[in-house]
């Protein structure tokens, strides 16, 4: 068993023990027509998976504390760890993440980039930051 496969198996064990159901929905923007510029969203993909959801702590001297000082993160945001096979970076996609099953809170990605942890060419896990969608939890045009 290689180091990468041991790390993947260890992360999967963590997901099984402390993971929360996560619903990742990707949308494409569709513009009405030449005469109608109203934008609507069509579902590109729906993925149910398990993820580790953690609050933003911002302990002094950490990467998160720097992002909080810069105003890019707040204590109401979350960080999400998912399997390395999940991709949050589809160009042109709008992403909404629901936490729990059924999802009671919805989040949108914060454009800080998705951090992926890889060994060789194998993705072990991905970490991304999300901000809660206020109001109904839906995007306009959905």
Can you characterise this structure?
This protein has 142 residues and is of the alpha+beta class. The chain has one domain: Thrombin, subunit H, CATH 2.40.10. The chain contains 2 helices and 7 strands, in the order H-E-E-H-E-E-E-E-E. The chain has helices spanning 3-18, 63-69; strands at 20-31, 39-55, 78-83, 93-99, 105-109, 115-119, 122-132. The longest helix has 16 residues, at 3-18. The mean pLDDT is 83.
Quickly list its features.
2 helices; 6-stranded antiparallel barrel; 142 residues; Thrombin, subunit H; alpha+beta
Low-confidence stretches: none
Going by helix content, strand content and strand pairing, the class is alpha+beta
Counting DSSP E segments of at least 2 residues, the number of strands comes to 7
The name of the CATH superfamily reads Bacteriophage SPP1 head-tail adaptor protein
Biggest sheet overview? 6 strands, antiparallel, barrel
Strand order of the largest sheet: 1-2-3-7-5-4
Number of domains: 1
How much helix, percentage-wise, in residues? 10-25%
Question: Which overall shape is indicated by the principal axes computed on the Cα atoms?
Answer: globular
Q: If helices are DSSP runs of H or I spanning 4 or more residues, what is the number of helices?
A: 2
CATH architecture: Beta Barrel
CATH uppermost class: Mainly Beta
Query: What order do the SSEs take from the amino end to the carboxyl end, as H and E?
Result: HEEHEEEEE
Span between termini: 45 Å
């Amino acid at each position: 068993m290689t180091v990468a496969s041991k790390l993947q198996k260890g992360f999967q064990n963590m997901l099984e023990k402390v993971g929360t159901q996560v619903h990742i929905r990707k949308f494409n923007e569709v513009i009405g027509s030449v005469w109608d510029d109203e934008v609507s969203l069509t579902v590109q993909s729906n993925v149910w998976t398990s993820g580790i959801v953690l609050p933003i702590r911002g302990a002094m001297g950490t990467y998160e504390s720097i992002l909080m000082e810069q105003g890019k993160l707040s204590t109401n945001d979350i960080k999400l760890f998912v399997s390395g096979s999940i991709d949050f970076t589809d160009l042109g996609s709008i992403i909404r993440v629901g936490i729990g099953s059924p999802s009671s809170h919805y989040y949108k990605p914060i454009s800080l980039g998705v951090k992926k942890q890889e060994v060789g060419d194998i993705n072990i896990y991905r970490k991304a930051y999300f901000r809660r969608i206020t109001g109904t939890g839906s995007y306009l045009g959905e």
